[in-house]
Amino acid sequence: MHEPDFILFASDATRYGLWGGGLLALSLFASWREHRRRRRRNIDRVGLMPWRDVAALTGFAGLALMAFAAVGWLGGG
């Protein structure tokens, strides 16, 4: 698979930032789905996905990666 040039020649900090942003977007999606699950009309239709846990784990990982990216960008990397 061919990677675009802006990713191929990106610094490690930029790659961390891209992954962190993706994980934060996934965390927002999971938070929205958890909100919808809590407000369901039929109390017996719970669902299978643990959206709260997915949101918490991806949010933590995304923030950690964004912190690493910020350190790299501020350090000139």
Assign the structural class, choosing from mainly alpha, mainly beta, alpha/beta, alpha+beta, or little secondary structure: mainly alpha
* Number of H/I helices: 3
Number of separate domains: 1
How confident overall, as mean pLDDT? 90
Taking pLDDT < 50 over at least 5 consecutive residues as the criterion, the unreliable ranges are: none
Measured by DSSP, the beta-strand proportion falls in under 5%
Q: Sheet with the most strands?
A: none
Your description of this structure?
Helix content is 71%, strand content 0%. It has one domain. It has 3 helices and no strands. It starts with a helix and ends with a helix. The chain is elongated and about 50 Å long. It is mainly α and 77 residues long.
Main traits of this protein?
71% helix, 77 residues, mainly alpha, 3 helices
Secondary structure topology:
Layout: H1 5-8, H2 12-38, H3 51-74
Helix pairs in contact: 2-3
Question: Quick summary of this structure?
Answer:
With 77 residues, the chain is mostly helical.
